[in-house]
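Design a sequence for this backbone.
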């Protein structure tokens, strides 16, 4: 991340890479490992710039990383005392592990795995966190005109059958379409149960779960005494407070058509979540056509119209859920939705490379030449 090294803390915001809280991938295991290693190097370099060499503040900054939720997670805490900062960071990582055990569909005994196993058979009891995430997922689906869909997994699987980027026929996709319909998810909030009405259905909250987790982690860290920090779960990031030198956290948005680490622009964040969905991390090229991981639930084909969508919002769950849904909606409808929502801003790069910036970001985003 040499281009990102500055006197201020810098992070490159990239599209998420997830195997445990997401079905958003379409490449083989070798490519997956390469991308994960690339992400590891990117975030490692970024976090080397977090703590200024000299600071007149008495606050202490502590940063830790672990491999959780199918990605490399970074938690940074700022507090008046080192032990308090360490305690807050440890509490944040423990909270991520707890949420992972509840929601990861790659853990067979998680609540959502049990829901998927029981598809077409019976309802399954889930805890308040999963019910809250599922409610938020359905709200996000409504907001984005169905662009965000936690049930699209069977179609994603059809695109990944051979692990080598196989392109399924339309007949194959139509065969799994009934399994991707959100109307076939029944939430009973009185009994706290979830029912998937058809065998073969499965839900995955990977497109919203990391943002939800980041929100919870911030609360846990603040309760433990942290005055500021960053929770970075791949491309889903939540900040609170300011750096020890009282500067805001600085983030770089990855350029969707340039090499890793080359940014589209920079933005300072404070008490905000940010998330990016892009077609540049998981894709194959065949006959000059890019087939990427973000499927349009209407066509069950890769969504066209955008190269990347970055959302900034007060809540991480909102930023995380909106980026994919708006990517599917396309630039015009997507930007109209952003402008209509309070405390939500965004940057959309269209399929043709046009950069669209929401009105509330025009004075905050510094585009690179």
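Sequence:
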């Amino acid at each position: 991340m040499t281009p990102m090294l500055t006197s201020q803390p810098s992070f490159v915001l990239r599209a998420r890479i997830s195997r445990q809280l997401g079905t958003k991938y379409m490449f083989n295991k070798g490519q997956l490992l390469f991308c994960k290693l690339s992400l590891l190097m990117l975030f490692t370099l970024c976090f080397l710039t977090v703590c200024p060499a000299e600071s007149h503040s008495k606050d202490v900054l502590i940063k830790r990383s672990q491999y959780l939720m199918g990605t490399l997670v970074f938690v940074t805490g700022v507090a008046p005392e080192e032990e308090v900062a360490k305690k807050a960071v440890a509490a944040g990582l423990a909270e991520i592990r707890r949420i992972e055990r509840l929601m990861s569909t790659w853990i067979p005994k998680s609540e959502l795995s049990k829901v998927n196993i029981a598809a077409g058979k019976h309802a399954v009891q889930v805890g308040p966190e999963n019910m809250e995430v599922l409610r938020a997922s359905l709200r996000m689906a409504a907001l984005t005109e169905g662009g965000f869909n936690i049930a699209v997994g069977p179609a994603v699987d059809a695109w990944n059958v051979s692990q080598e980027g196989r392109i399924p026929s339309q007949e194959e996709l139509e065969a799994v379409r009934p399994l991707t319909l959100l109307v076939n998810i029944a939430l009973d909030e009185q009994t706290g149960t979830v029912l998937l009405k058809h065998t073969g259905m499965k839900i995955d909250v990977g497109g919203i779960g990391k943002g939800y987790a980041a929100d919870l982690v911030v609360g846990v860290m603040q309760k433990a005494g942290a005055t500021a920090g960053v929770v970075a779960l791949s491309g889903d990031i939540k900040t609170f407070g300011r750096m020890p030198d009282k500067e805001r956290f600085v983030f770089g948005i990855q350029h969707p058509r340039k090499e890793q680490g080359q940014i589209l622009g920079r933005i300072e964040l404070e008490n905000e979540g940010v998330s990016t969905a892009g077609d540049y991390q998981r894709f194959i090229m065949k006959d000059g056509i890019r087939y990427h991981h973000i499927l349009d639930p209407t066509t069950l084909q890769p969504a066209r119209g955008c190269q990347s969508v970055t959302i900034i919002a007060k809540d991480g769950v909102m930023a995380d859920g909106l980026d994919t849904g708006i990517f599917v909606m396309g630039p015009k409808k997507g930007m109209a939705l952003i402008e209509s929502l309070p405390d939500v801003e965004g940057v959309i790069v269209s399929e043709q490379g046009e950069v669209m910036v929401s009105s509330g970001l025009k004075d905050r985003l510094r585009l690179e030449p």
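The chain has a mean pLDDT of 86.
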